[in-house]
Design brief:
single chain; 96 residues; alpha+beta; three-stranded antiparallel beta sheet; elongated
Length: 96
């Protein structure tokens, strides 16, 4: 997350929020935050949120990412993911 100048702004069991301020390196041609930066931040937040629910020494791995953007992102953006339903020993989703 270093290239995005992002940071964990909130950390709770099952909930992680990653914040970053838009800057030219994150923008696409129209000045909006690039979808790749948003997807990377969302993926990282989801992984950390899932990891916060697992026993020490556990590892997580993203197997699929599905994103729907409802409007362009400009300025400060906050991303978070939290625990989805079910048992984390099996494939489960997290929501952003």
């Amino acid at each position: 997350m270093r290239p995005f100048q992002a940071r964990i702004s909130s950390l709770e069991r099952g909930l992680v929020e990653i914040s970053a301020t838009n800057h030219p390196d994150l923008e696409q041609q129209d000045g909006h935050v690039h979808a790749g930066a948003l997807a990377t931040s969302a993926d990282s937040a989801g992984g950390y949120a899932a990891l916060s629910l697992l026993p020490s020494g556990s590892r997580v791995l993203t197997v699929e990412v599905k994103l729907n953007f409802l409007r362009p992102s400009v300025g400060k953006h906050d991303l978070w993911k939290r625990q989805g339903p079910g048992d984390w020993r099996y494939d489960r989703g997290v929501r952003a």
